[in-house]
Each structure stands twice: as structure tokens, then as C-alpha cells.
Amino acid sequence: PRNCAGVVFGLINALNKISPALLERATRLLHKVPRSTLRVFGVSGEQARRNLFGRLEKSLHARVEFIARVDESEFHRLLGAVDVALDPLVFSGATSTLDCLWAGIPVVTEPGVLPHRRSSASILHSLGLQAWIARDADDFVRIAATLAADTVLRDRLRIELPERLRQSSLADGGRFVPALEQLFRNAWRDYSASAEPMAAIALGSDADALKRTLIERANDTLLRSQTQRGDPQQAIYAFETLALAMPSAAVQRNLSRAWNNLGVIRRKRDQQAEARADFRTSLQIWPDNPEARENLGTV
């Protein structure tokens, strides 16, 4: 069994998911658990290291280890030294969460409202591990620190977690897929029975009317995302759906604008790394987006 003082907290997700709020929680844990360390995966290049060190207390730098991007076998070897994984706040893990659980490593998550912030919580809930789903920042730190202190539990989890995952519906495609299909049927049945007019349009033969409705709603979400009343992520979902159903240059430009709006909001919240990633995504979709190009130069 490991000594509690040598516990390793892990940030194993994509670098652009590491937000100031997540680093604040990691900092609190390093203070709360003496001689613990933080292992951050996927940090390649001196500039990336300097950027992250600049967001951490100088007194903690010696207790932070950066791991460059490595191949899959080396990643799993290095992952094995992590004792408690800290799930990102801005975009929850999924594959990374399952990687940790297969390795017997507990994952602490703090879910948000939208689906992209709830994937780890969904996985943990499916496994009966709701105790690792935090309500807020204080609860996140408490759960992670409690896991760090319980070496007996963590040693047991190394053996039990992989088997629990193996026996769950998450690893049983024969059970999982029919259940998911039934959820889709139920959702469509409930939606079609509601007063929502779009269902009637979708079931009818007027494809042009359906397209107009989808575009109007997506455009309305985009306009709302430019104000305090709307969420840019909802506009992104709407235009990503449109891009699949009816790809066009206009839809791609509006999807680019939605990503730009999300970057603007994150820049206002001083989430500079996330904002930079959003502006770059906007430009990947529409390289000539003038607002995204100008905004990228400001972060």
C-alpha cells in the first residue's frame, strides 16, 4: 500500500480542458494533502509548461510533473502511477475516464448542466459510484482528499474497479445498444406527443418547412448566445446538427460564429486557454472569420 503522503493526483485529459477553476481545485488539494504531487498529461513544449506554471503557485512547482504526449502503451504505463484522477470542468472526460477506471483509478467529477459536462458523472452513476460525483468545488476537494487519505480503499479499487466495469452494461454491447435504442424511441414518442409543432413538421412531407424551422431555431440560439440570455454551446449543438443534415457554407459560417461567441464569453471569465482554443476552432471551420481572427490575437 502507498503512503498517503505520496499520493499522485492526475490531470490526464486534453490540455485545452484544463481550466483555471480545475487548477484552483488541484492547488487546494496539493495544500490539503502534504507531499502529494500533480501529474499533468499531454504537456508538450516549453511554452506549454511555462503557461501552466504561470497559473500555479510558485511554491508548488516542484510538486507538479508534466508528461509530454506519448504513445498509447507508454500512456497507460504512466497512468498507472496516478492515484486519483481529477475530471475536467469545462468538458468532462469519457475515454479518459474509462481508461482510469480500467486501471483501477478513482475519478472525481463535478458535472455541469449541459451534456458535454456530464459524461463522467453518467459513467460513474452507471457503476454505482455516485460518491465520487461532487456538488461543488468544496465537495470536489473533499472527495479527492478523502480518496487520497484512504490507502486501503485505493489498493482495493485497483482490483475491484476493472471487474466492476467489465461486469457493467457499459462493457456489454448486447445490453447497452438495445437499451439506448429504446431511450431514443421513448424520447421521440414523448416529443411527438407534445405541443411542439416541429414534431408534426418532421412527420409530414414538407421537408422545406422542416429545414426552415431548424434554421430559424438555430439562428435564434446564435443571436441569444451573443447576449447574457443565451448559451453559445447550445448554438454550437444546433449548427453542428444542421451541418450534418444540410451542409452549406452559411451553416458553417454560423457554426464558426457560435464558437467565436463561446470564446468571447470565456475570455471575459479570464479562461484564456479555453478562449484561445475556441477561437482556433472557429477559424478551422471558417478560416476567414474576421471576428475570430481578431479575437485570437487578443488572448
Helical region count? 14
**Secondary-structure element string:** EHEHEHEHEHHHHHHHHHH
- Count every beta strand, where a strand is a DSSP E run of 2 or more residues: 5
Radius of gyration, in Å, reads 22 Å
Q: Percent of residues in beta strands?
A: 5-15%
- The mean pLDDT is 85
Biggest sheet layout: 5 strands, parallel
Low-confidence stretches: 196-205
Task: Chart the SSEs and their pairings.
Layout: E1 8-11, H1 20-32, E2 37-41, H2 46-53, E3 64-67, H3 72-79, E4 84-86, H4 95-102, E5 107-108, H5 119-126, H6 137-149, H7 151-166, H8 173-193, H9 197-203, H10 207-225, H11 232-245, H12 249-268, H13 272-285, H14 290-296
Parallel strand pairs: 1-2, 1-4, 2-3, 4-5
Helix pairs in contact: 1-6, 10-11, 11-12, 12-13, 13-14
Describe, in plain words, how this protein is organized in 3D.
With 299 residues, this protein is α/β, with parallel strands linked by helices. The protein is 59% helix and 6% strand. The N and C termini lie far apart (45 Å).
